[in-house]
Amino acid sequence: MKDRSEKAIMNASLVEVSSLPETLAWRNNTGMAWQGIQRPVRKGQTLIVQAGMVVLMEARPITFGLPGSGDILGVNAGRAFALEAKTLTGKQHETQLRFQAAFERAGGLYGVFRSEEEALAILGRG
């Protein structure tokens, strides 16, 4: 098995999983971003602006997604699933382990995969 990035594994697996019959699957993003009023600043002012920088007034963080939830969520033949992509050496974080336990207690199918083949196998299609 070739060592690829988590993003590459997730993207390729999402394509494969999405193509299964009786399946609806989507990328589940989680994280944090900043929101505010964008303010133009000229070079040489108090703040030295470098290419690509954005200055926000009244900046505030916005979190999105449920921490620990799977990278791919969906339904396959009537059963909810959550799939977590990992590299060959990647390990689940504590929040991911807690999400897995709660999801499985609720009757969902959860699995960690390191390749497209493993993602399909979790859904019984590999």
Automatic annotation (TrEMBL):
Highest rank taxon of the organism:
Bacteria
Q: Which InterPro entries match?
A: tRNA_endonuc-like_dom_sf
Q: Report the GO molecular function annotations.
A: nucleic acid binding
- How is this protein named in the record? VRR-NUC domain-containing protein
Record the organism.
Sphingomonas paeninsulae
